[in-house]
Amino acid sequence: MSELQRESILGLDNIRLDLPVAGVGSRVLAALIDYLVMGVAAFLWIFLWALLFSGQGTWAVALLIVGFFLLEWGYFAGQEIFLGGRTLGKMALKLRVLTAEGGTPGAGALFARNLVRSLDVVFGIPLLAIDPLSRRLGDRLAGTLVVHDREREAAPILGRVPPGWTARELALVESLLVRSRVLDDQALVWQMADRVLARIRLDAPELLAGIDTRSDPMAALRQALQVEEG
Amino acid sequence: MDYARFVRLRRPVWDDFERRLAGSPRDKSLSHAGLEEMALHYRQVLHDHALAAARYPGTAAAQRLQVLALRGTHRLTRDRGEGAGIRHFFTRTFPRAFRAQLGMTGITTALFLFATFWGLAVAANRPSLGLAFLGPEAIQGLEEGRMWTESLVSTVPPSISSSAIATNNISVALTAWSGGILAGIVPLYVVLLNGMMLGSIIGITMRYSMAGELLEFVSAHGPLEISLILVSAAAGLSIGRALVAAGDRPRSLALRDAGRDALAVLLGCVPWFVVLALVEVFISPSPDLPAALKVVLGLSLEVLFLLMAIQPFSRNAHD
């Protein structure tokens, strides 16, 4: 997630939180999906209307007009209000609307940000591209941000670590433990594990006491650091 | 503290908080004590996140805490607005927002009147303007002593006309409102264009001695319809003003507050557009109803809207 554009906000007790702000690419793609779904919904509405109300008098035509009006102005706002800041397009790309403080936006803010959508069709994309927080007109009006809504990836838990290791070294070992599951080149994995073991041997040889580091260096590394799958 | 020890000691809290977050946000079974505990764990997660971000940046624990802190903030911090319920909205939120932008409504009204008189003067001097606004069929109808408004019920069924008029008027109001984000240019355009069109059309019908028929037609729905468009445009202008002249506050904050109030004003106007569409289709073109009745209805609707918007006799609205 470190490659994502991030914006810092001050949360409770003035603790800094980094919001993974969604950029122009994912925003536009989500909007395209939504407009596609909207087109299909409009087509379905005509089909349903023809099936259920066609020839039922002039009020049926009025119903058709009102249906299109609600679809035009209510598709985005309705979904964001009832799906917790997400539309189908946003769900597909794992995006979510938050307040600028990282909270859940109210129905009013979600409604307001979508009322200016017709203007954002013209002005939104350049604004998304130039604004560091990727806010279109609607986001500025409602005080909202769109962020990546990603679940936590399973990561190994280190039961013990050599004293004095920096966060960078710890992150490197954790990364190796995660990637070793998906890397095809076992020889390369073992080579990297050997280098970590050599470093452990140097910094804290007691961690390797009684462990066979030759037959399977990855297993030895897991054993030495008492790795537990999280 | 050692990284492994930090993770070992704090992980039960993170696991518990993650488990609670996995539950539905609309879970009614969550007790007050459960919520308190969740809030306490949230605070602990935030502090652990701050420590991990400072001492163990980039590690799995720091990344996990980052996700937990964000999800917790999202779940437990909610932008609630003023209050819930339709009654609360129409008795407090809408009147308060309406009164707050009375000055802006005065500006849109003055601009509208100016444009109307301008349109009237132009139409008197340039008859060709009528062709541009009304089209050749309507002008031919006027020459034959017919108003184009008759077609509202004669050629299109009332149900279709009323829904088309309501959706069109709401769209005009929404455009005027939302266009406020472009520094108020669009609401100004909507106000001036509508004013000029009204003035021009009155001027053209005067040329054909049919201004009386026009005024009779618009008397039932016109006053409130114009008011609603002017109020919506004023709400849009308030947004534009917050963008251009935010004052001492950050522009983003000023814009957000202005947007909130402007939205309340707009939503308060929307139901009236539906009422007006019915009046415009069923009452305004009706030749059987006397003109005086239409005038009384038009004025009554206007007064009713203003009373609901300003609520001069309600103490709640002035809180």
Summarize the helix and strand pattern of chain A as letters.
Answer: EEHHHEHHHEEHHHE
Report the helical percentage of chain B. Answer: over 70%
Helix run count of chain A: 9
If interface size is counted as residues with C-beta under 8 Å from the partner's C-beta, which chains form the largest one? Answer: A-B, 69 and 67 residues
Number of helices of chain B: 13
Determine the structural class of chain B based on helices, strands and strand pairing.
Answer: mainly alpha
Sequence stretches where pLDDT stays below 50 over 5 or more residues of chain A: none
Polypeptide structure, described:
The complex is a heterodimer of chains A (230) and B (319). With 230 residues, chain A is mostly helical. Chain A contains nine helices and six strands, in the order E-E-H-H-H-E-H-H-H-E-E-H-H-H-E. In chain A, the strands form three sheets. Chain A has a two-stranded antiparallel sheet with strand order 1-2. A two-stranded antiparallel sheet of chain A has the order 3-4. In chain A, a hairpin with a 5-residue loop joins strand 1 and strand 2. In chain A, helix 2 packs across helix 4 (107-115). Chain B is 78% helix and 0% strand. The chains are: A mainly alpha (230), B mainly alpha (319).
Write the layout of secondary structure elements.
The complex is a heterodimer of chains A (230) and B (319).
Chain A (H helix, E strand, L loop, with lengths): L4 E6 L5 E6 L2 H29 L5 H25 L5 H5 L2 E5 L7 H9 L1 H14 L6 H6 L1 E5 L7 E2 L9 H13 L6 H18 L13 H8 L3 E2 L1
Antiparallel strand pairs in A: 1-2, 3-4, 5-6
Chain B lengths: L2 H20 L9 H24 L4 H17 L9 H15 L1 H24 L2 H16 L7 H4 L3 H21 L6 H23 L3 H9 L2 H23 L6 H32 L8 H20 L9
Write a compact overview of the structure shown.
The complex is a heterodimer of chains A (230) and B (319). Chain A is mainly alpha-helical and 230 residues long.
